[in-house]
Please model this.
Amino acid sequence: MKAAVLLEQNTPLVVEDVDLEGPRAQEVQVRIGATGICHSDLHNIKGEWDNRTPVILGHEGAGVVEAVGEGVDHVKPGDNVILSFRANCGRCENCARGIPVLCNGHDSPRQMMHDGTARVSLKGQPLFISARLGTWAEQVVCPAEQAVPVPGDIPPEVAALIGCCVTTGVCSVTNAARVEAGDTVAVIGCGGVGLNCIQGARLVGASTIIAIDILDGKLEYAQEFGATHKINSSREDAAKRVREITGGGVDYVFEAIGLGPTVEQALECARVGGTVVVVGMAPMDHTASINPLRFVREQKTLTGTGYGNARQLIDIPRMVEHYKAGRLDLDRLVSHRYKIDDINEGVERLKQGEAARGVVVF
Model:
């Protein structure tokens, strides 16, 4: 099969013919219909995270089950599935507490299967795979728990985005922060995840939704997806403007970039007693400078969320239902479509901030 392989960090992807082994026990094989190009993949390409190479990246995907291994009974060949980038054992303490995104029940590295081995190879050399998926390929073999069955009547591009940016953004609002109707919200960073934080805030009835970015094109997207106000922080003091709009700051700020300075900016945007939720995935060496006394005097909360605290088997199908009912506008999220041979063009557009979400369609 074809796959886009990152041979070394800070080099272009190479589309190669690779070999795929079939699924073993508690694994599934999925033919990918579409897969997103996410900023987390860009961190890996740029060497900002310490993942290993050679690797097949991609963790935002959907497709059709081709085969199942022994012991798999929740999906069968022919089923449509959305792939979750977080495995969850269902047995550890965090899974039992209803926080499957913090599952610690698997010991193997997240770039290998649960038994510590690879299912895909290039010229006899085992390849690592992002998030035990590696969706920048025509097919994947992954742990069965990461394949969530869904109806087959939604476009594969939309289904793919529900696997990461949609669920992460919406659930950051609904699950992690539990924003209520009438609350005020600001979102810093209007890429794929940030746009879905905006959609999540609109979904729950937030009264004010302020979009903050440095690119006018992304702010235009944000307004289309539900933002009531937009601020270009390259031209004006975003925190000052947020306080002017709301009379003191917003109830909730979602930082959807993953940078120290924007976390600091988020704290300035929050009202006294407000909450900042860090959603964006930062480079490993980034830090933020914060005066701890302000937490006492202003009683602000700074927290973080992975995958929006989603419960994959519950919330991924829920996102599908929101889409089918017209409550989430996901078709317009797909701003660019590529073939696998053109994936480096998609990565470059992501670097330049030109895409809401680029998708590889097979």
User: Anything to note?
Assistant: The chain has a mean pLDDT of 95. The first helix runs from residue 39 to 45. The longest strand covers residues 27-37. The chain has ten helices and 20 strands.
